[in-house]
Write a structure and sequence with these properties.
There is one protein chain. With about 250 residues, the chain is an alpha+beta fold. It has four domains: about 55 residues, no CATH class; about 80 residues, GMP Synthetase, Chain A, domain 3, CATH 3.30.300; about 70 residues, no CATH class; about 35 residues, no CATH class. The chain contains seven helices and eleven strands. The strands form three sheets. A four-stranded antiparallel beta sheet has the order 1-3-2-4, with no helix packed on it.
Length: about 250
């Protein structure tokens, strides 16, 4: 389950009657909070987990909306304080816990930031627990959402639960152009889809020759000059100059 809109993904004891997509009130560190159920895993030992108390009600939703509005006001105050202390950080978002006993400020920065004095000052203003949480640019995009190069909603903002490390090797496996502008998302990092599509490409590539390999075919021996992993098809150039496409069965 994801706490609030931008909080951590945490395991909770759901009990019966809850479904994926439900917004619920849960036990938190110091009081109550809310979140969205992303997945239900019946194989998890629930005895050591905190409990989901109930689904949110219409009154709860009114309070959550009010919290969001108050968080916008808190951002303005925190922004001014950051300028006052001349801290090298970019404030991204703020969230109140459901019971308003805590407010979390999310920020990005290239360096580690000593924000102890800032927190003390904010605690005097809001008179509740203050938490500063440094996030990466991928988390920032998850918060704001947007449309990716594919024309669809960003994966991070729509269905991805966690960020996995993405490498240039994954782009190479998928035969993508190694041009940063072609394989990077709007966050400036390698696109998340490279990771979750990689295992499918890797599976489909099993048994296929690589470009440059010499292979024997029913039409003679030739050199592989191109590979289409998704179609499990290769183009082979023979000594007489002929180029033929060879399709491999998925069971090969």
């Amino acid at each position: 389950m994801r706490l609030r809109e931008a909080g951590n993904i945490t395991a909770y004891s759901a009990g019966d009657g809850f479904n994926v997509g439900d917004y619920v009130i849960v036990e938190a560190d110091r009081g109550l909070d809310y979140g969205e159920i992303l997945e239900i895993n019946e194989g998890v030992n629930n005895h050591s987990l905190r409990n989901i108390i109930r689904r949110v009600t219409s009154e709860d939703m009114k309070k959550i909306k009010d919290n969001r509005q108050k968080a916008k006001e808190a951002i303005k105050i925190c922004f001014d304080k950051i300028k006052e202390y001349k801290l090298p950080m970019k404030l991204v978002e703020a969230e109140y816990s459901f019971d308003r006993k805590k407010i979390v400020f999310y920020f990005t920065s290239e360096d580690r930031v000593d924000f102890r004095e800032l927190v003390k000052d904010l605690a005097k203003v809001f008179k509740i627990r203050i938490e500063m949480r440094q996030i990466g640019v991928r988390d920032e995009m998850r918060l704001f959402g947007g449309i990716g190069p594919c024309g669809r909603s960003l994966c991070c903002a729509s269905f991805l639960k966690n960020f996995e490390p993405v490498s240039i090797k994954m782009a190479k496996q998928q035969k993508l152009p190694l041009n940063p502008s072609k394989i990077s998302g709007i966050c400036g990092r390698l696109m998340c889809c490279l990771f979750y599509e990689y295992k499918h490409y890797k599976e489909l590539a099993k048994g296929l020759p690589k470009e440059g390999d010499k292979i024997n075919t029913s039409k003679g021996r030739g050199k592989v000059i191109a590979v289409n992993i998704l179609k499990r098809m290769v183009y082979v150039e023979f000594e007489d100059g002929r180029i033929e496409k060879i399709v491999f069965d998925k069971n090969e």
